[in-house]
Write a structure and sequence with these properties.
eleven-stranded mixed sheet, alpha/beta, single chain, transmembrane, Rossmann fold, about 600 residues, For/NO2_transpt, Glycerol uptake facilitator protein
Amino acid sequence: MNDADRSEGENSVRDAVERSRSGAPAAGRVLRDRFSSDEVFQRIVAAADEEITAGSRELFFSGLAAGFAITITFLLYVSLTAATDGAPVLSALLYPIGFIYIIIGGYQLYTENTLPPVALTLERLASIPALLRNWTVVLIANFVGGIAGAAALAWGGILSPETATVATHIAEKGIQTGSLALFSKAAFAGFIVAGVVWVEYAARDTISRLVVVYLAFLSIPIGGLFHVVVSFTELMYLVFTGTGALTVGLVEFVLPVLLGNTAGGVFLVTIVNYFQTSETRLETARFEGAKRQLSPREWLFGSLVGRSYVPLVDTTASAEATEGPYQILVPVSDPSPDAGIVTLAGTIAANRPEATVTLVHVVPTYDRHSGYRGSDGDQIVAESTAELEEMRRAVESHGVTCRTSTVVTHRSFEEIFGIAERRGSDLVVMERSDNRLWASGRAERHVSELTSSIPCDVLVVDDQDFDASRVVLPVVDNPHAELNAMVARALRDELATEITLLHVVDNPERLDRGEQFLANWAVDNDLEDANRIVDDTGVVEDAIERVARRHSLVLIGATERGLLPRLIKDSLHFDVITEVDRTVVLAERPTKRSLRQRLFGRL
């Protein structure tokens, strides 16, 4: 190896090492110990990606810890004030401790942790509703933590009588301040906190972060400024000690501080920090940059009208003009041409005029591409396309059109249904054994809500060794069974599959009625040539299990509770799935939801 090759290899390795796990730069490009404004922006976007996609439970409990930690700030501030007879500087020396505890611990605090997602929203990479969700959950959690901390201080005997008197005096001083002055002082505090956010991500070492955080938050008490979580904790202390009114304090004290903190922080992020970055900042943070921003409607209304978040890489965005009247979407995280979903999707497409199959390689950001950065987008797409090539050829062997796409995202499971909705897909075919997709679904927010309002038909293949030679279809009178009938017709027409229909009645007296129902259902669903079995034992799962032993594949429809939410939570317990050594296809059709459910169904 010559010196040039060795140098290039060393630089490549060095560059790879000096990227954080999320892909944000861990060292400056020009000077390795200093970041440019664009590189700081990339680091903030990487942090914002994790925060905006975090689950509500994760945000809440992190915010709860942060809210309680603010009690440390209040405790030390009033204790030092009492010990130093109110000396302005000495009494404030330990005020930043609670904030340092929060930042080093990675807890969610309103203003400090809720400002980075503003960068995504300004770039139209995250919607305003997504930003407001993040703010709301964190703020409520901070307040709950503040309530717990204030209760401990008021009723736990922690403060001495002299210190308790000082605490009451400090809290009352804030309440007695006029609303305009509160807003102005809080706006300046928000301005300082936003500056902390920027400088914190510009620092490479913990000591620098500690110094910046300490000095910045020290300026709040010395300057007579206000932070909303501290102010709320002070108010609750007065309420618990019987010296303050909750409603008046919230309206005349906490609300002006909240508005001021928010306005000051957003102003700095927008005017000072955001516009000092170059036009290339987004290209380095997202594949294809501004080409994949949210539409104005998506930006304003989020998931109510489309996407609420733009994933890191999404080549499906360029395929909005879909081809064919029937669209089948097949998401995979580990492409394999031998997977049962290939046969199933190809067979269904072949049975539909001009149907199109789209294979989507879903790459979670914490997968093998976890070193992702914007400039790697082309390489990731090229590697993904190569991995999907054999799978694409296997689908096309059924005589249908097949397209491939790649998505790199924090929300792998949620993104699947977002793509399906945006593309107007008619059917999603998934593999249950694809553990990475299902595991990510369990960790994502809103998945239970999402899967209870699926945008299209869904088939989940529990693939043992896919064999569609003999299929049994348990029949009930619901749309999910009709979806399975469509699958059965495709298998019969394309693969000459032998179809058996099974219907279970409660007792022998209902046998004739069950046979008549099954005959009529078979005619209505173009399966009159199928074998028909009516079981009169009344135990559905046992009947399916007995009949399944004589067949190679079982088609099962959802119940009124839905299959997908229970599959994600691992709470689906069908013995026929777990105990019968047969391929099982689980089917679910979307159900209608009211306008009220769509508007208020999510947090």
